[in-house]
Design brief:
GO terms for molecular function: ATP binding; galactokinase activity. This is Galactokinase. Keywords: ATP-binding, Nucleotide-binding. InterPro entries: GalKase_N (IPR019539), GHMP_kinase_N_dom (IPR006204), Nucleotide-diphossugar_trans (IPR029044), Ribosomal_Su5_D2-typ_SF (IPR020568), Ribsml_uS5_D2-typ_fold_subgr (IPR014721). By secondary structure, the chain is α+β, with helices and mostly antiparallel strands. It folds into 2 domains: 1-152, Alpha-Beta Complex (Spore Coat Polysaccharide Biosynthesis Protein SpsA, Chain A); 169-280 and 290-384, Ribosomal Protein S5, domain 2. 37% of the residues lie in helices and 23% in strands. The longest helix is centred in the middle third of the chain and has 17 residues, at 156-172. The two termini are 21 Å apart.
């Protein structure tokens, strides 16, 4: 996707009527399972070239006769399923819909047919993408893709590296440095990434198989036992957790302090207790862009973990700082990243990290989102993060 975006910005800046489709190479055995295209013979830039023909799932004979590329090692060029399309694509889709109605044909509205119309109008170019191609169009390829992602070598050092960027940021911000200086207790930290829904996420609620992939952006949680009977929370949202380039004036900062006894009182559900407490705080109405119940994620996690320890060792209170560059409300599991990061750091703080498995921790986070935050979800996001 990043390659496609770069090519689009470099070659189509300001031209809103031009589209760019991601292109990859496929083998002869795969041509009948995908959409092929042909490039012009005059290709000067493999990331931006004219497309002269398109066809959906041709026979091997047709592919050999018309779609074997003479410019790209005699390979076949196929659509990657990643496209940046102009607004005129909707005009083409509407025309295609009218054609189907006129011919009394009942079938799905084809995006590829509309894209081919763009091509004929000179409004579509191709971008050859580097990387491995995975198809999910049939059970065999779906399984191959799932297996490849499952057994791909992970790079744990990257997470350590992102954490090393977050702590210097804490030290640079006066409010955070002051908060942690009020207690002499150690600070426990953890991070969790956002996630990309590759496929199947919409059916997570029904127990379907899904394929998710962690993204580069992370949520970092810092947890410290405090000397006051409150949960003091500061959340900072930034575009990039990078101490060298960050601009303090562009940070989104939310701060809330909630009495610790709300976690320990069991007269009502924690969700009800928090709602009642919010209603009583007439003098601390948050800013327009701050959700009133964002502390529920953090307090909910703490409450569930505290229930697992002896009441005699329950801390007086907590200082908690969240720093995240996972985009909020963009479909990349920012809430799950917050829950998992806090759960990992807090479980270590409460000496529970060796007694709770990752699966149990994910299910605990799901419970919090379902019953304390009040958001219906499966455990897909929490398991991924």
């Amino acid at each position: 996707l990043e390659q496609l975006l770069d090519a689009y910005r470099q070659n189509i800046a300001g031209e809103s009527v031009m589209g760019l489709t991601g292109v990859m190479k496929c083998s002869l055995e795969q041509v009948s399972e995908t959409g092929l295209l042909q490039s012009s013979l005059n290709v000067k830039n493999k990331h931006f070239f004219e497309i002269t023909d398109m066809i959906e799932k041709p026979s091997i004979e047709v592919a050999l006769q018309h779609y074997q590329s003479r410019l790209f090692d005699n390979a076949f060029l196929c659509q990657a399923g990643i496209d940046i399309l102009p607004p005129t694509i909707f005009d083409q889709l509407r025309q295609h819909e009218k054609t189907l109605e006129r011919e009394n044909v009942t079938t799905e509205l084809g995006l590829r047919e509309a894209m081919n119309s763009l091509r004929k109008n000179g409004q579509l170019r191709g971008c050859l993408l580097d990387g491995n191609r995975y198809d999910i169009g049939n059970p065999k390829e779906y399984y191959r893709t799932f297996r490849a992602f499952a057994f791909e070598e992970k790079q744990p050092l990257q997470q350590t590296s992102t954490m090393s960027k977050a702590w210097p940021l804490v030290q640079r911000i006066d409010k955070l440095r002051t908060l942690f200086s009020l207690s002499k207790k150690p600070i426990y930290s953890a991070s969790a990434p956002g996630r990309l829904d590759v496929m199947g996420g919409f059916a997570d609620y029904s127990g379907s198989h899904v394929l998710q992939y962690p993204i580069a952006q992370n949520t970092h949680a810092f947890v410290q036992v405090s000397n006051t009977d409150t949960v003091h929370m500061i959340s900072i949202q930034t575009d990039c957790v990078d101490c060298e380039t960050i601009n303090k004036n562009n940070l989104t900062v939310w701060e809330r302090e909630i009495p610790m006894n709300l976690l320990l009182d069991h007269t009502n559900t924690l969700r009800q207790r928090l709602e009642n407490w919010y209603n009583q705080q007439q003098n601390s109405i948050p800013s327009n862009d701050e959700p009133i119940n964002w502390p529920n994620y953090i307090v909910g996690i703490l409450s569930q973990l505290i229930d697992k320890i002896d009441r005699a060792v329950i801390p007086i209170g907590f200082n908690i700082v969240i720093i995240s560059d996972v985009p909020c409300n963009k479909g990349v599991a920012s809430s799950a990243a917050l829950e998992v990061a806090v759960a990992r750091a807090a479980s270590e703080c409460l000496n529970l990290d060796h007694s709770i498995s990752n699966t149990e921790l994910a299910l605990l986070c799901q419970y919090v989102e379902n019953h304390i935050v009040g958001s219906s979800c499966g455990f897909m996001d929490q398991m991924t993060c």
